[in-house]
Amino acid sequence: MPSALTYPGVYVEEVPSGVRTITGVATSITAFIGRALRGPVNTPVRVQSFAEYSRLFGGLWQPSTLSYAANQFFQHGGSDALIVRVFNGTVSTSTATITLATAGGSLVLEAASPGTWGSALRATVDHLTRDTADTLLFNLLIEELDRPGGTRAIASEQFRNVSVDPTSPRFVNTVLNEQSALVNVRTSAPATESPTDATVSVANPDGTATAAGTLGSDGNPIADAQITGDQNARTGIFALESADLFNLLCIPPRTPTNDLANATWAAAATYCQTRRAMLIVDAPAAWTSNPATAIATAVTGVNTLRGVIGNDAAINAAAYFPRLRMPDPLSENRLADFAPCGAVAGIISRTDVQRGVWKAPAGLAASFSGAQGLTYTMTDPQNGQLNPIGLNCLRSFPVTGHLVWGARTLAGADLLASEWKYLPVRRFALFLEESLYRGTQWVVFEPNDEPLWGNIRLNIGAFMQTLFRQGAFQGASPRDAYFVKCDHETTTQNDIDRGVVNILVGFAPLKPAEFVVLKIQQMAGQVEV
């Protein structure tokens, strides 16, 4: 009611309705971890096209399986990715620098990220500033050339009227570190001397280092240690702690010929379990190295992998076999073998948009774009050996092409009888958990009594009803499809005394028609009466 009724008349008061709309979270934001040509290290960067990836991380690069996976993700319908670049080497010594001379010292600039790309940087200084009497002011032009020692700039940044004076609002350190995508300041210039007019590049045309700075390095091929990372330092997979949400995790092979260790997959699956995400596991290339024993090797391999990951974390992982054969744009479009994780994640994203997260990302609609073949072509009986142990197969069919022909989690082996056997069921449950977790934050510290419980039932019920109308549940009526319970039965007086409110949400998931059985009967001769 109004705070004080002091004068006769009409008082107007707005009464809260208690309606708080719950919005479903994204379902196919895909995180990629691997080696890249350039870009921030151990920092998740959101990209929404391969053109944006190329601008930030350097595009396709043969030593980078990450670049090919990201390209295939967008090629197959993906639209939202988080890129985590990991680096095997010392970042500081692998980052190119440019030294700009002053009378009594120098201003040392460094490339924004490690890599040989920084060796193509060039800096130009002039003093045609707004106040030529101010000797601390100067203009700075940073250019990225088409090659080390080249002459054609492919990107440039210009910073006018910057100063070496730390008290200036245009202090060069602050301006570059906050606004430049090409360089940062490594060593400040003397506060009383601005750089002399000059054009300085990192490398000569022959690629050798000069007194103008030091060359960059791409580091060594990454190892499993860079991927598993360190939780306290937030490196490797733990760099995703800085990301608000991701739904799928792809870790391409360390190099085109070196696969991840099972222990790395286990660490990634465990992390996905804590973040309500799914891990896409690529079958090792070694499983198909001998076609005569490929199926037997795959059976042994997936069982070993599941044993290392553990049945608890296996519900948040899905494995795909075999690999794709696709043209390599960097090798005159000759066919090469690629891990399928990026393409599969793109297909999952496309399926979510077209049908919903409750639809299995497999079948005739789950076709690969640009694939020329698979590293192993299996028969139906061979598929029948792998599907019951939870290994999703990629198949080639005469007319429909190359398809994803499985939708099970790693816990989907028939022997385990897991309730999370199917990938769409697990992903839909994760979607509900994350959406309701975020959509019920307003409940915290509210009075724990029937008015609150009623509002909870109203808001969650409205969200579940919307999903029901979209066809996300089994059942012909809402009563058959879901329930939301929050009352004295779920929250006892003891719970109230402890500050706990319990909400029980149940749903009947849609399960894929994995086996379609046609029963055909020959009719006996019919006698008309």
Give the neighbour order of strands across the main sheet: 2-3-1-12-13-14-18-19
Q: Please mark out the parts with pLDDT under 50 across 5 or more consecutive residues, or reply none.
A: none
Radius of gyration: 29 Å
Strand content: 15-25%
How many domains would you count in the coordinates? 3
Sheet with most strands: 8 strands, mixed
Proper CATH architecture of the largest domain: 3-Layer(aba) Sandwich
Short descriptors:
4-stranded antiparallel sheet; Immunoglobulin-like; 529 residues; alpha+beta; 25% helix; Rossmann fold; 13 helices; 8-stranded mixed sheet; single chain
Task: Please give a quick description of this structure.
The protein is of the alpha+beta class. The protein contains 13 helices and 21 strands. The strands form 5 sheets. It has an 8-stranded mixed sheet with strand order 2-3-1-12-13-14-18-19, with helices on both faces.
Structure description:
It is a single chain. The protein is an alpha+beta fold and 529 residues long. The mean pLDDT is 93. The chain has three domains: 30-88 and 227-424, Rossmann fold (3-Layer(aba) Sandwich), CATH 3.40.50.11780; 97-214, Sandwich (Immunoglobulin-like), CATH 2.60.40; 460-529, no CATH class. It has helices at 50-57, 65-75, 172-179, 224-228, 262-274, 294-309, 311-314, 341-354, 380-386, 423-439, 450-469, 478-481, 493-497; strands at 30-34, 45-47, 81-85, 97-101, 106-111, 121-126, 137-145, 153-163, 183-187, 198-201, 213-214, 248-250, 278-282, 317-321, 324-328, 334-338, 373-374, 391-397, 401-404, 482-485, 504-507. Helix 2 runs parallel beside helix 8 and helix 5 packs across helix 6. A hairpin with a 3-residue loop joins strand 18 (391-397) and strand 19 (401-404). It is flat, with a radius of gyration of 29 Å. It has an eight-stranded mixed sheet, with helices on both faces. Strands 9-5-4-11 form a four-stranded antiparallel sheet, covered by helices on one side.
